Amino acid sequence: GGTAPPTPLSLGFNAVAKSLADVVTVPAGYTATVLYALGDPLDTATPEFKNDGTDTSFETRAGDHHDGIEWFGLSAAGTRSASASDRGLLAMNHEAITDQFLHANGVTANPRPAAEADKEMAAHGISVVEVRRTNGRYAYARDSALNRRITPLTPMQMSGPVRGHALLKTKYSAAGTDTRGTINNCGASTTPWGTYFSGEENWVNYFTRASTDDAARGGNTAKSVVSLSRYGKAQGAASRHGWETAGIADAYARWNVSQAGTSTDGTDDYRNEMNTFGWMVEVDPYEPAVAARKRTALGRFAHEMGVFGVPQAGKPLAVYMGDDSRGEYIYKFVSTANWDANDANAANRMATGDKYLDSGRLYAAKFNADGTGQWIELTIANSTIASYAAYRFADQADVLVNARLAADAVGATKMDRPEWSAVHPVTGEVYVTLTNNGNRKVEPSASSQQALDAANPRSYTDAPTAATAPGNINGHIIRFRDSEPGATAFSWDIYLFGAESGMDAAKVNLSGLSGDRDFSSPDGVRFSAKTGLLYIETDDGAYTDVTNCMLLIAKPGQVGDGATQSIEYTKADGSKLTVQTRVGAKPTAANLRRFLVGPKDCEITGITETPDGRALIVNIQHPGETIAKANIADPSRFLSHWPANAGYGAGGANGRPRSATIVITRNDGGLIGADGTAVL
Ligand code: FEO
Ligand code: CA
Ligand code: CA
Ligand code: CA
């Protein structure tokens, strides 16, 4: 007979209280230290960061808005060692920027000075930075030859089924095979062969499109216009930072995707530039000379991140992915190649990525009210997709570029903003955060709004009438079980509902959260590979009058451990609407506690751990991001001074706030969050 699977450890720390203080708070017996903050130099030639807006050279400094982060162990010889915890590379996303603080006097309006645009572009992308543990303390190694930055200008390859397709042809790559850089990278994971896997999320916002562009493209029924509209780029929409106004050079012009040239194939302008963004990006942190690849087989949308199912020898690999926008979908990619465990240590990691990620099937999830669900394949071979009236797909590459439209065609379930996904290391069940959705309505009155359903069953209001319902403002975490990686049916329930502890238990606080574990807007999630415990991070705007964003640690059960529950709503005319959903076992102090609260006006984003489970590495994103240009000279108007106020870098109590990576260790050297020493 076999042995029972190992069970996760139990929680072994005292919950921390909600807090509005401008500090990082962790439980008694733990220490949090700052490791790597915006502007930190990545070589010895780049000057120390002055943090006054005069710094330049972000190509060799830490970028801004630290997000998804992963640990890649290094041997003493500086090569890959998956189990190493004393020395490693951190790869991390720099999702966005707090632009006012990057400049001495804040942001200059359009037309943007090129020097400002150059800094802002370079502060986006990805960092690879070496970290070492010496006498129990972690620090980054400024002099490591493996340190590097990837920015929106770094050359990359398009890979997979869409490579070379007409939809990818630009002035930069007439062959449709190459692109420059990555932007708005949000969550991250590690592939089973040891590369970094990063999602391109809100890339749409960085582009502008002329107010006459629909006509230039053949009118608002032209395929490219339907596609641009579905991905949120209406004609006349402004870009987030106005970089296209900074000069005529290609590096600026590319942010304007208007059809300006006379070619039929788009090789004389940037009309197709948006099609080179919105992908999963694979980076080999150990090989600075190997170009990153955008894996087009996994579809194009606002990728929060992608997480691999537990690899099973001889079976395909599954990758679970959320599209973070209101009413968007959850996707699964299933590789054509079956997993060969020897590939976990393959010498050529990017070629291994080609093997597993360039060929496969893409699916969108449909959640049924009875707790079952289907993965619906997005293939041109499906007549529902091939004959879709709203958009005539030309071929499978067109389906992948316009995955949202294909998922519309098959009637996938519109979710409450799918953010991160995490896979339970023992059960293999998949947890997806649905952070919030102001468009989830009791009585939808616009096409942008979604009706309640079993998987998205909540639209909160103090007095539930349709007119005032603000939607699902606190978010929830859904989970599902695939019987195997390629399964097309699954079972699901809702593991946890975010809520304020004092809210109505019948309509809002459906998980019965008490004050030591109440939270709002779950975003980052990750299971510890060592303890099996679940980390939950928040990015909230609904509860921040009471507490800064936070990190909780949980020991979840499994799909179906709770009960069916009905939620009754009152419509505007006084009639009732009852929504039935499936809620997991309500958490107790034994299996859900608040572990960390961040500084003011931040979100808690990326999370990783050292392989020994004794250091938790967390990103604190955009503390004090709310700042007007008029207040940039007055530190008393800054909402946060962290981490300068914690003694890190320049500025002290008056310092400009900085996104930063922190490392959390237990003072007794034990496993993070756990009450024991046995491991999975
Ligand atoms: Fe970048 Fe969906 O958070
Ligand atoms: Ca963010
Ligand atoms: Ca996020
Ligand atoms: Ca978020």
From TrEMBL:
It comes from the Bacteria. Residues 438-468 are annotated as: Disordered. Residues 438-451 have a biased composition (Polar residues). PANTHER family: DUF839 DOMAIN-CONTAINING PROTEIN, SLR8030 PROTEIN. This is PhoX family phosphatase. It comes from Ramlibacter albus.
